Amino acid sequence: MPEQAASRRGLRIALASYRSKPHSGGQGIYVRNLSRELVAVGHEVEVFSGPPYPQLDPGVRLTKVPSLDLYRDDDPFRRPALREFRSGTDVLEYATMCTAGFPEPRTFGRRLEQVLGPRISEFDILHDNQTLAPGILRLERRGLPLLTTIHHPISADRRLELQHARGWEHITKRRWYGFLGMQRRVAQRSSHVLTVSEGSARDITTDFGVPADRISIVPVGVAVDVFQPSTTPRVPGRLVTIASADVPLKGVPVLIEAVGQMNPDVWSELVIVGSCSDRTAKLLADAGLLDRVTFRAGLTDDELASLIGSAQALVVPSRYEGFSLPAIEAMACATPVVASAVGALPTLVAGGAGVLVPPGDAAALAHSLTDVLTDPQRAAAMGAAGRERAVSTYSWAAVAQQTTQLYRDVIAARRNHKENPHAHR
Fold first, then answer.
1. Number of structural domains in the chain
2. What are phi and psi of 338, to 5 degrees?
3. DSSP label at residue 250
4. Residues 412 and 385 in one domain
């Protein structure tokens, strides 16, 4: 049987991601690094992705699943030409956007079903990266074993966005997060869920209603050969934070308030990896910090590693983090981490690799940053502890090995279900 053969050889893996932005956000980074390490240990991996498409390493195949690409960086919320509409899914995608919804997960699931459906026999397993759409479940019902990654339930993002919304924005934000009901229903029907931390596992059980015995934990990894201590001196007083999206969840306003409270002689500059919204620009102008805060976007891994390695501290002021890849990248660069005590962050920076502060507390954040910047001996000890922890616990090779075992468990469970179809999960 195909499942029995899969237990004795390298696996044929379909890795699906509805969007895979290469240099910011976690999805493209997760897809690239996991696929590379899976190939390195002898598996065949084909990535199925909607735009923006991932950058992949040699040996990993990419099948593009085109969409209308309504949220591209250079033309967000664009109006497609009539000739671009080729299916009912295209119409659904555009109509949902026009009514303030976010269609990508649902429409990607539909398109993936069309692309992958005729090829089910070519793969041993489908690994879905947080699409959580009905089309994904239909592929499983057709016989393809399925593992679903949920980095964290987007319900946390929704709660924070609605807390900060005002007036009409409150209505549009509710509409934008309308896809959450679909994701919750799909999560509840998913037999095997992978998540990245114990905190995320608890939140998936609480917010999505997924039984804990269906959830396995495998952390996100870091490329420790790219993110490593710099050979050049750090820039005195430089702080770096990474905000893949300028939303309340990432806590940038709290960080701006914190640095505004700090002695100007203690810090020299804040570099924000991400884009600057009008709201953030106004906060910086009101605080008189426009000349001390810069934004960088579209960085390669090497450029990002160089930037993090040049900083005296990486700041993670988030109000929620299911898992913080920037924190792990900083630890690998031996850069001290100052972070909110939320989600997975207390676990990630355990062992002296970072300092934790209450979320949303600008005064506490300012105090902790000042302590790290003015105590080089302590900062060096934090950096060394972080590097050791990153290498021993969070390498992508280790992540690939643990994920492979999950694949084999899912395939075996599918085989057992076929042999005992009336047994309960």
1. 2
2. -120, 115
3. G
4. no
In this prediction, residue 298 carries a pLDDT of: 84
pLDDT digits (tens, 9 = 90+) for 261-284: 999 999 999 999 988 888 889 999
Helix (H, G, I), strand (E, B) or coil at 94: helix
Query: Are 168 and 281 part of one and the same domain?
Result: no
**Residue 242 maps to a domain:** yes
Q: b vs e for 312-346, b when ≥16 Cβ sit within 10 Å of the residue's Cβ?
A: bbbbbbbbbbbbbbbbbbbbbbbbbbbbbebbbbe
- In this structure, the number of other CB atoms found within 10 A of the CB of residue 224 comes to 20
Q: Are 381 and 388 in contact (CB under 8 A)?
A: no
Task: Using alpha carbons, select from 268, 252, 261, 265 the residue that is nearest to residue 287.
Answer: 261
Per residue in 104-114, pLDDT tens?
999 999 999 99
Cα→Cα distances 236→162, 316, 372, Å: 38, 19, 12
Are 107 and 153 in a shared domain?
yes
Query: Is residue 196 in some structural domain?
Result: yes
Provide the residue range defining the domain that includes 359: 238-393
Residue 251 domain flag: yes
What are the pLDDT digits (tens) for 228-261? 999 999 999 999 999 876 666 788 999 999 999 9
What is the pairing mode between strands 293-296 and 146-149?
A: unpaired
Instruction: Give the whole-angstrom CA distance, residue 84 versus residue 272.
Output: 36
CA angle 362, 153, 355 (to 5 degrees): 30
pLDDT tens for residues 85-97? 999 999 999 999 9
